[in-house]
Amino acid sequence: MDLINGKQFREMLESGCNNLNNRKKEVDALNVFPVPDGDTGTNMSLTFTNGVAEVRKAGSEDLPIVAKTLSRGLLMGARGNSGVITSQIFRGFYQAIGDQKELNSEAFSAAMKNGSKMAYKAVMRPVEGTILTVVRESCDAADAYVKDHPACSMEEYMDVLCTEAKASLSRTPDLLPILKEARVVDSGGSGLLAIFEGFLAWLKGTPVQESEPGTAESEPAKVNGYRTEFILKLSENGKHKFKESKYRDGMRGLGDHATVIIDNDLVKTRVNTLSPGDALNLAQRYGQFEQIQISPLDRELPPSILEEKAEKKEEAEYGIITVCAGSGLEKLFKEYRADAIVSGGQTMNPSTEDFVEAIRTVNARHIFILPNNSNIIMAAKQAAEVTEDKDIIVLETRSIPEGLSACIVFNPQESPEVNTDEMKEAIAHVKTGQITYAIKDTSIEGTVIHEGDYMGILNKEIVLTDRDMLAAAKGLIDRMCDSESEIITLIQGKDAGDADTEALQKYIEENYEVDVDVENGGQPVYSYIIGVE
């Protein structure tokens, strides 16, 4: 095949998306840390699925429109660093093709090479041995091949691209010692290779079919239907029963583009679904509707009632958006002035669109976003870039304790510049520790880890392991505390018991002259999150 048009590119995208979806668990398993939250494959799958879903919904077979729609869908659906980088690759691809209706191998190669450059520009401090290396080396090698073989077909080009991507991926452990020690290759690069190999399979006449069809995030039938929006006020009984993660999963199971934003006792929900009644029935268990709007997706949509709600409020000077998972943490952040909570964290990274929706509900001139996870910062910054009418300040909080400290020192009487400086200073003085368990045997930076071990993680470095959770937590606290420590925040996860928490609090009080703040965060994955200041 010498030329690719819009229809054919759409079919390539479907094959690439299916291949990535089929292999997402394999990609997840490549994550270096043996924590039960391997998410690179899931993040990339959700990102790419969102882009392809938007292409399906648009229905166009015009190549520039397909590429533009894909770029926008990936941008808004981007989750995690690898997802954001993937969105930038195809953003650069779209920008390079201009108004071309067909692409030969030379034009396709130039567009991919531009995508590689765009991905590097999106990262402040690019790290080699990652997805960035794989896209750069493969695109450069394939482009060199095209220049030496100007008459080559699209199949030849893509075959070279895949071959070089696979070779580059195999070299990532030589560039990142932590990959070599864990005996894995880079997970983001592996996800990108899956997309490329899906493209090649289509060009060879054997397009990849999804092996597990019917998931909420990838089922084409659910792209059409109704945009279902409502604002629900929780009843007193509903407040006790309501679990955001369970509610959000329920909405995602009914359709796609599910957005859930908690604002005090209001639950603001939007979902595209074939069954609006099911979404309303699910929500009504927890309270009374204040507003409902249901609109067919195949017609011009009215303004969002979620946005209308924000417009009716008097604009505030400041707003704070923060990310966390766990009802206790949500309550705690709200007590510390957070205006909107984006549900997520290490186990489910929120998308760019999740942040954009939260920004729309916070009617303020200056909005601080606290991602509270290093893998969420890029999506938050991407949301800030696409929001033109607000002053969005993304503070690079990498943990829950950092986010809490930033909230505590925020002063609504000060200027944005002063608040930014004060919050950054508070963040810099926080040490973060986490206790979780290992899901596989591995070795990281000289620490031998066995499946089932509890790990003490200090500022993202595994510093100890123990078969006993309480012993691991005590050992981690010993590593974190010194003579200058003044405050310890101990946040209990949903897997930790009250008796263990009481014992841990007693251990701290008997051994360290510090103030101890104990909170029940209810967070998943991490038995304890510990902040030391």
What does this structure look like?
- The chain has 533 residues and is an alpha+beta fold.
- The protein has 4 domains: 4-203, Serine Threonine Protein Phosphatase 5, Tetratricopeptide repeat (Alpha Horseshoe), CATH 1.25.40.340; 224-312, 2-Layer Sandwich (Alpha-Beta Plaits), CATH 3.30.70.1150; 317-429, Rossmann fold (3-Layer(aba) Sandwich); 431-532, Hypothetical Protein Tm841, Chain: A,domain 3 (2-Layer Sandwich).
- Helix content is 50%, strand content 20%.
- The protein has 20 helices and 18 strands.
- The protein has helices spanning 6-28, 40-58, 63-77, 80-97, 105-122, 131-148, 154-175, 177-182, 187-203, 236-241, 244-254, 276-284, 305-312, 327-335, 352-361, 377-386, 400-409, 416-428, 469-480, 498-511, and strands at residues 4-5, 102-103, 226-234, 255-263, 266-273, 287-296, 316-324, 340-343, 364-370, 391-394, 431-437, 442-444, 447-449, 454-458, 461-466, 487-492, 515-520, 528-532.
- A 6-stranded mixed beta sheet has the order 15-14-11-18-16-17, with helices on both faces. The chain has a 4-stranded antiparallel beta sheet with strand order 4-5-3-6, with helices on both faces. Strands 8-7-9-10 form a 4-stranded parallel beta sheet, sandwiched between helices.
- Strand 16 (487-492), helix 20 and strand 17 (515-520) form a beta-alpha-beta unit.
- The longest helix has 23 residues, at 6-28.
Features:
single chain; 533 residues; alpha+beta; Serine Threonine Protein Phosphatase 5, Tetratricopeptide repeat; Alpha-Beta Plaits; Rossmann fold; 4 domains; 6-stranded mixed beta sheet; 4-stranded antiparallel beta sheet; 18 strands; 20% strand
